[in-house]
Amino acid sequence: MDIPWWRDAVVYEIYVRSFADASGDGVGDLAGVRERLPYLRELGVDAIWLTPFYPSPMADGGYDVADYRGVDPMFGTLSDFDALVAGAHDHGLRVVVDIVPNHSSSAHPWFQAALRGEGRERYLFRDRTNNWQSTFGGSAWTQVEDGQHYLHLFAPEQPDFNWRNPEVHAEFLDILRFWLDRGVDGFRIDVAMGLYKAEGLPDVGDQSFKATSPVWGQPEVHGVYREWRKVLDGYPGERMAVGEVWTDSSEDLALYVRPDELHQSFNFAWLQAPWSAPAFRKVIDDTLSTVPFATWVLSNHDVVRHRTRYAADDPVTGLERAKAALLTMLALPGSAYLYQGEELGLPEVNDLPDAARQDPVFFQSKGELPGRDGCRVPIPWTVDPPSHGFAPGGVRPWLPQPAAFAELSVEKQEGDAGSTLEFYRRALACRRDLARSIPYTLEWLKSPEGVLFFTRGPLICALNCGARPVRLPEHDEVLLASGPLRGDLLPPDTAVWLRRAS
Ligand code: GLC
């Protein structure tokens, strides 16, 4: 069997409103992405994933969709979308779009009709509520004028659909076809484990993402993905779907990627693992023993950037670890998802002024939680303020960039062999040469405490999470290291790719 493109693909997440603004309104857009396609090709990724660009009141950065078949004027037009897909394909890049099936925006015509008392069975209206909480804080129920309440697992502006209603199924099959007909190569499925809720909506003690929760991961959800898989398989060109599945068990995760369901699901256990060799090793073993096609991800638009996560108070160590984790991730069997800006070594921006914050998490927690804006600060392309090349001329970006972004800009890093950007380019180029010629399987080699050595055919990857330098495993050639080696020693917070002849 031919290996499908997505099996070892490196997919680059574009948080559209923060990537590049061509129109000059301070918000990123589709035309901005199109202008940067040469950059993405040069970076060496295989595909881009676009976060929602659909018409939306932006209560949750576009994850509140008012029209599933359009483009918000803030992001452009459908022709801009078509031009972007065509341009991406010309650059050898596949395009994955985000689909948000758990909830719509409260501005969606179906919800507006429901407020008028028409078609409430498309959502989850009840006379009485239960004790469920919104993921963003506060009750998961909002009362409407006539006294009924509707369920929203996220913001009140994001009412949950009733997936027990066949009309919802039909609508989403049509939406998938709409975008597949326009040439998309795949879908990223938002809150993929959310769609069904346990019958009777029982109260819960603990609302975290658990395989056994009545809120998440009900068995009926798998029927949806079987329907979707048939649609995807009906199109030529290996169209795929990757699920955003938060759960506490790798066995549960594996259910979503059975052969007749989704092609991939995000592996958040990898991103949640602390900076620790045994923790990393456990996730790798659990993943490879449970799912047929592994994926790996370190950062996305919902979590603290991994440079900051690995060493909150020490940006230098944070960056060393971030690069070492990247090199390790790229050596693992399966596909890798990158988040825009990690190739520049961007940190989480923790000191955004409250007045600038836009994430509903900040508002629903009444300012107790900072929310996710800190990983969504627009990309610095050049050294020049006020937007560092993110927007034209003197336009200010929708979130302020810290002054330190000038030093981290693409302009500053391009061509500097010691920069994070050039390191990413080298790593992705090296991986591209290797990925399909080495076995999908991985073998562990004996290693000192706090260190991982594994091999895939001729490739050896070594990662030092410990406090002391360790001797490199036997090898014939050093391919690439995330930081300087000391002779035959691998320093702490460093990873290396080695080749051995046999
Ligand atoms: C997903 C998205 C996140 C959004 C939430 C609700 O987790 O990644 O950004 O807030 O779903 O749609």
From TrEMBL:
Which GO BP terms sit in this record?
oligosaccharide catabolic process
Task: List, for all copies, the residue spans of the domain called Glycosyl hydrolase family 13 catalytic.
Answer: 13-376
Q: InterPro entries attached here?
A: GH, GH13_cat_dom, O16G_dom_2
Q: Which GO terms describe its molecular function?
A: alpha-amylase activity
Family designation:
Belongs to the glycosyl hydrolase 13 family.
Could you tell me which PANTHER family the record lists for this protein?
A: ALPHA-AMYLASE FAMILY MEMBER, NEUTRAL AND BASIC AMINO ACID TRANSPORT PROTEIN RBAT
Q: What is this protein called?
A: Alpha-amylase
